[in-house]
Amino acid sequence: MPFWINMVVALTAFAIAAVMGIFLIPLLKKIHFGQTIYEKGPAWHKSKQGTPMMGGFMFIVGTIAAVAVGYAIFRFRQTDAAAVPDNTGLYRLLAGLAFALLNSGIGFIDDYIKAVKKQNLGLKAKQKMVMQFVLSAAFLYALYLLGDRSTAITFPFFGDVDFGIFYYPLMMLYLIFLTNAVNLTDGIDGLCGSVTVISSLSFVMLCASMGEWEYSIYSMALAGACLGFLVWNLHPAKVFMGDTGSMFLGGSVCAIGFALHQHLLLALIGIIYVLEALSVVIQVCYFKATKGKRLFKMSPIHHHFELCGFSEYKIVITFSSAALLAGIAANLIYNL
Fold first, then answer.
1. pLDDT confidence tier of residue 299, bands split at 50, 70 and 90
2. Cα Rg of the chain, angstroms
3. What single-letter DSSP state applies at residue 240?
4. Burial of 167 (0-12, 13-18, 19+ CB in 10 A)
5. For residue 37, what is the DSSP state?
6. pLDDT tens for residues 165-181?
7. Which pTM does this prediction carry?
């Protein structure tokens, strides 16, 4: 696939997401869909009280529109008009988009509860987990029907390990963990969007190496749309993505990694998400084991760095740089 198609996709996604902010932000302000700031967070975050949320619609619309444009160009340029088109790639792409959108739907419910009730709790944990289990099972089943019936996980430098029947429950838990990990990364201005731009570009390179052109389009669309959103979300943020947006990003990142059947490289490319989630787990376990002591000043770990004196810009740059190195490492490992 010519690289210019990916560039058209990225520019389309960027333009749609960036332009949408002109109209969406005033609308969100008008209907009073503002963020309620967590009382136990850093004190200076209270100044963000009331900042419009659900800005994730910018990159959701941008991603979907750009994928449609890119895929249409990709299929139009296929030269063998007499051949019967193989739609498997399209169906796998649609399965990934559906998984991301349905996760976004969970996030939307969460945001709606927060916006209407002016609470920062949203959905109950059990409610969210049940819905995520159902979605994860449905996505894995869709991949199974579309030909991905391998129950093996590739361990770099060691080869494949077949988990048999245990593969599916393990992968359901893995999907839920990573989706929520992306959600946890959305804690300061521009962080989740910036890290996702880098991770998506890493997936573009991986897709190119594997010949996964449909998911290359998806990855590039996601990167471009997140860049468009960052026009409005970098510090000081004029809008937040909300769970509507972060759950879409989590679903997208997971969908791409699973469609490529690269479970461990997914964790490496998404290392920032993983560390953010692990910092919460470690903090809770340490707190319980030591009866009230904390390992980090606050979790997720980006708040720890905030309380250590890092500016929001510095955290974004540091975390994005780490994501870039991890993405390069993942691509090098795959191509060895």
1. very high
2. 20
3. -
4. middle
5. P
6. 999 999 999 999 999 99
7. 0.94
